[in-house]
Design a protein that fits this description.
This is Iminophenyl-pyruvate dimer synthase domain-containing protein. It comes from Nonomuraea maheshkhaliensis. InterPro entries: Ferritin-like, VioB/RebD_dom. This protein has 351 residues and is mainly alpha-helical. It folds into 2 domains: 258 residues, Ferritin, core subunit, four-helix bundle (Ferritin, Up-down Bundle), CATH 1.20.1260.10; 90 residues. 44% of the residues lie in helices and 7% in strands. It has 10 helices and 8 strands. Helix 3 packs antiparallel against helix 4. The radius of gyration is 21 Å and the shape is globular.
């Protein structure tokens, strides 16, 4: 489970006006974006034509996280603030804790796909909230010293609904809608506090499911249970014979370990020979990633129609990553058994 600083939740609970919510919503946008690089790295490590069921399952989660990023940006615009995807430190450094995370309870890196990665990292990122509550000697419930992302989002939703004005102050013309990419029931203008609460609920339910079901409102298996199904090797399906109504007894998720490129975990450009093919491919990937950030910033910065271009760059990034993953990384001319891994940092402007 992703543990976050309880002070962030307490700050939301004290909010009296839209501006009070802005810093923590910007953190939530960073968090949603920060899940994309590790998920995308695992996806890119799957060789073409191999492990395709797994590839598509992870790909769909990546697309959902892009949606969640846009929802967060719509909320910031609705609050009258500017989504700052270009702010220093917006892009997370890997390996390390995710935004809002505390300590090193969950260290997230950029690694090739493995079943262990599904269980030890991806499932923990998406894990539904079920915290232990310890009681003080006087019998009053003592909240845990950390909060969870589910609690964070619920508190944010409650704080929005408690604002004195139902209509939010932002310019509705900055709201991103994209029927060609996301249905109107998933990405919609946020004008009121009720719109905002509905959008936040969608983020939580697509990641965790509903409180009593692993299926989100669209009928899809939520991210946590999708990753669990991959780890267990079988899809989660409705099962009347199971006490919970579901079981991991559906079609197999076959996994071929030889169908994974041995990407260098947490690749660093400085570790590559600047004259090598691996360095050139890594640089190309970084340039494309920088273009993606700039295109998304333009989209959420008052030009929502630019999303088509941003999604096109996202497709380019996927292709650049697939090419990158095929490139071996030698050391002193000697094969290392590793391939180049993607680097999610802005490309230097002087190169």
């Amino acid at each position: 489970m992703l543990r976050i600083d309880r002070a962030a939740v307490d700050e939301l609970a004290r909010a009296q006006q839209p501006a009070d919510l802005v810093p923590r919503v910007q953190d939530a946008v960073r968090l949603e974006f920060a899940t994309i690089p590790p998920y995308l790295t695992a996806m890119l490590s799957l060789k073409p034509g191999r492990n395709r069921d797994i590839w598509w399952a992870v790909h769909d989660v990546v697309v959902d996280e892009m949606l969640h990023l846009l929802i967060g940006c719509n909320l910031l615009n609705a609050l009258g603030a500017r989504p700052a995807l270009d702010a220093p430190g917006f892009v997370t450094e890997y390996p390390g804790p995710l935004p809002l995370g505390i300590g090193e309870d969950l260290v997230v890196g950029l690694e090739p796909f493995s079943l262990g990665l599904m269980e030890s990292v991806f499932m923990r990122i998406e894990e539904p909230e079920n915290p232990l509550v310890f009681r003080r000697a006087d019998g009053v419930a003592e909240p845990p010293e950390f909060a969870t992302i589910g609690e964070f989002y619920r508190t944010l939703s409650d704080a929005l609904l408690a604002l004195p004005q139902e209509v939010l102050p932002g310019d509705v013309r900055r709201q991103v809608v994209a029927p060609a990419w996301f249905g109107a029931d998933r990405l919609f203008p946020i004008r009121t506090t009720k719109d905002a609460a509905r959008a936040i609920g969608l983020i939580v339910e697509e990641g965790e499911g509903t409180p009593d079901s692993p299926v989100d409102p669209d009928g899809d298996i939520a991210h946590y249970y999708r990753f669990a199904a991959i780890a267990k090797g079988r899809r989660l399906v409705r099962d009347p014979s199971a006490p919970e109504g579901f079981s991991y007894s559906g079609d197999p998720y076959p996994f071929d370990a030889d169908g994974v490129w041995p990407l260098t975990p947490n690749q660093r450009p400085a570790d590559l020979d600047p004259e090598s093919e691996a360095w050139r491919r890594v640089h190309q990937f970084r340039v494309t990633f920088t273009r993606l950030l700039d295109a998304l910033q333009r989209c959420v910065d008052g030009d929502p129609g630019h999303l088509d271009a941003a999604m096109g760059v996202m497709f380019e990034l996927k292709l650049a990553g697939q090419m990158l993953a095929t490139v071996p990384v030698p050391a002193g001319g000697v094969p290392t058994g590793r391939h180049a891994g993607p680097v999610f940092t802005r490309a230097p402007v002087n190169l």
